## 1
Amino acid sequence: MVPARTPPPAPARRPALPTAAGLLCALVLSGVAAGLIGIAMAHLLEGFEWLFYGVEEGSLPQRVAAAPAWRRIAAPALGGALAGALWWWERSTGGVVSVEEVVADSGAPGPGSPSRRMGVLRPFGDAVLQVLTVGAGNSVGREGAPRLAAGALALRLATILRVDRDWVPVLVASAAGAGLAAMYNAPLGGAAYAVEIVMLTGMRRRGVLLAVPLSALATAVSWWGSGGRASLAMPAAPLTAQALLACLLAVPVAALLGWLAARAWAWCKAHRLPDSWGLPLAIGGAGLATGATSLWLPELPGNGRDAFQGALDSSASAAALAALLGVVVLKPLLTGATLGAGATGGLLAPSFALGASGGAAVAVGLGLAGMSPSIPAAALMGAGVTLAVTQRAPVFGAVFVWEITRGPAWILPPLLVACWAACRITRPSPS
């Protein structure tokens, strides 16, 4: 009788961390990484602004104003053409998987799933291109860069630490919000962005458990580079009857601007030029238009952060009113042209720049009529309402603009109510 053979021993498996321990490690490492990414993106933006405009210090409008006229026109065009050429190559060789695709994937491990295809190098490369585009002066948001890079790194960490599949999309969404929080020094806004915009409905309750600490950690890490300073300087805005009146009148104006901008930008994205050899020419052409308009308004180039600051600092004068109305008209047009040409970029900063300029214009008009409204308060109210409407996210819209300006406490409750009401009124009717 032949003795039974002993089966060979199974290959040794790498021991897995307990579910809670692996998730906690991934959360901490993702938060630290998101904070460092925020620092890196901020320095990269400064470097690109210096490279394209040749001015070492100052805000982007100050650099634009100090640069010679030919450089003000050429910088966005050259930056757009360069980014367009690189995007053409990137998209023709496979493109980039977005954070939203990974979150919608729900962690399914199929061989062709977004979670498997995302990688790290391509998201980081695309993030650099987005920052390059904004640093050159093109009119799109830069918030997509840190959220894409932070989300990709969080996905890689979740894979290495073997985080439970059900928690992977929640972690990726939370890391994306943390990247935004680190970039703008806005932990509550970053968490609200992750929960209200990036996450799917079924994951939002447990998502808060990751989004809040992750954004807080990323923001704390980013203070190493920012010193904890607010993203924008908010002038004094005491509570008065005329300040409330200006805020109240700014709400419908900002809601209408947000509704119109959202529809226009959605149309531009839907009719975007194809990814062909014409991509660098198209994005460069949109940049040329942005550069030409900067000869009149230095606040127009870039993502819109400086236009928001300009609205907060506006005086009650006819010249200030003309500048604000110029931003209201031209900023959404230039952003739509840049997106329609094929650029990748966010809409957060263009949205709050549009709303802030509209709200400030209302207050400046009241000031010219002999009243004493609070222009900064009206600008803040307009920024939050327009951002909430374009993103369909009332809590995020209110909290984010209040946090990046460190606005007065009295304005937050009416701002939340205004954002909620504006989103309810402007929401698409069911078909």
## 2
Amino acid sequence: MKRVLVTGGAGFIGHHLIEHLLKNTDWQIVCLDRLDTSGNLNRIREVLEGNVDFRKRYEFVWHDLKAAINSQIGGLIGKVSYIFHLAAAS
């Protein structure tokens, strides 16, 4: 099974990508976001609601990419097969 990292996953485009990946793959998904003004976990919560399989395959990691990824954050992310880099200031 693949494990993917989606940076900016709580944003508008990111949450649509996460929803697509959950519905169309069996991949583990790590969402990395700093949840500033445009990031909103309610979008993802609606996707996960009522689906145990989706909740098992989804993880959220809070991190601001303006800072380096230290060993603790790296450990939470783990080894990934793909990175979808969608994080940006809006």
## 3
Amino acid sequence: MKGVILALCAVLSVCAAIAQPYAVGRRTITFTDEQRNNRSISTELYYPASTNGNNVPVAGGTEKFPVVVFGHGFLIPTSAYTWLGDSLARQGFIVAMPNTEGSFLPSHGNFGSDLSVVATKLVLADNDPASPFYQRVMNKAAVGGHSMGGGASFLAAGSGNTNIRALFNFAAAETNPSATTAALSVNMPSIIFSGSRDCIVPPATQLSMYNNIPSSNCKVYINITDGLHCHFANNNFTCATGQALTGCNSSPLSAPQIYAKTTSLLIPFLNYHLKEICLQGEVFQLNYNTITGVIKQIQCPPLPSCGVVPVRLLLFNGQYAGKKNVLNWKSAQEINSLHFELEKSNDGRNFVKINTIASEGSATNGASYTATDEFPYAGSNFYRLKMVDTDYSYDYSEIINVRTPLKDIAVTGIFPNPLKEVLRIEVQSAQPSMVRCEVWDVSGRMVQSGNIQTVSGISTATLSMASNASGVYWLKVFTAEGQRVGQYK
């Protein structure tokens, strides 16, 4: 980060890191392309969730996730790429894999268009209240694919769709229309993977595509030594049978070894180019420089400086004190820093902002800060700092955990304060129960009340205050048995 420099981490300890991996949700959605006679595009989706499962909600919080659309290989089902869908969804990407063009006579042109259309449809889902991804989709997408799908990803990337901002593929095959020709129109960061033992689509094919990508783009070519064509498809039976018939079905590498090499580069590449996480560019560069067992090429402009310096004064901590959590941090230097946003989570994965603190340091001097969480969770409380620059770029600190005493019921949030017309109350409960909330004015008159039927975990409820005059009020919270949980001003 070029602004705040917290003495929290060395250059690549990834203090700006992504939070702990998400669970993976899965669902099938059929998109309709109105421009091609209402063509149906059945699509398998993998996305960040709070719990693993089919049709589960998107992970809690307000974070928006970029889209990755991936095309399958010839006669290979999308299930062969579950490894990729799961890997990317865990890291905060919405992954879409169209099921179309799975026949013996696929239309490469239609498949490329399907990838492009699905990218657009998912980006637009951010504004669709009926979508399960409403207000959770970033307006950026990448396209990728394997074999036939890799070639189709070139067709999509070269189509001029401005939602598509990055390209990647595995053992991309030539298509009709030509993927190699389409590469001439690809104007976005691209990373191309191939396998040295691929005799179905030899590496020379992918290298020709790579060479055709205009040099004005950041482009990377990775040829994995001993990599097979079907490694990227989890050695799918159909793929492996064709591979055996061509006489190149043997390799000392396993599919998981291929996945590890691939994701070590692909994930920071997408984090940097889609999420614009500065430090992930440095992670990618480090992994590229140190990866072994590959032949590689890269043509990319120099990375911007993220402003990270070696560890000096390590300080971001917190403690439970007087029914509150007190957070302390100290910066070593602050350049173009706007403010800190203190974020909180009960699972270390889904964070919400609870406070904004203006920056006080300078380019030559750091500063010390203290913030208070008035409503900690019972048990684990995870915190991180979002460090925002004057140009609104940002990075994250490490995540810390402050533990508090376990309780049957705890009030963990009252919003907003000062309140406007609606008071929102958040309660954490060890098991389902009833909680009573009462609002009293300073004269000792109860002006509003209501009950919250809690679940095991976090529950929220609202009280309308629209009819009440401006002033100071007290919120009193009681258990169903009448025991006071707390009183809040």
## 4
Amino acid sequence: MKTSQTKSDFKQKALHWANQFEVCCFLDSNQYIDTYSAYDFIIAAGVQKELQHSSKNAFEALKVFYEKDKQWMFG
């Protein structure tokens, strides 16, 4: 992006776009920079797979859910 204003405009438009989905997640670094920073911000929109579980054994269910695909999980 050329300027912070352009980046800010893009973030607003991207967030507006993501808002059309029932589920969306917007993670923003708030310009924090460190050795491991790969993205200034990232958006997840929509649901491909979903884990719904009661509190009993929830972490074990999450582990099994993750092991199936080993993909990014937002939520």
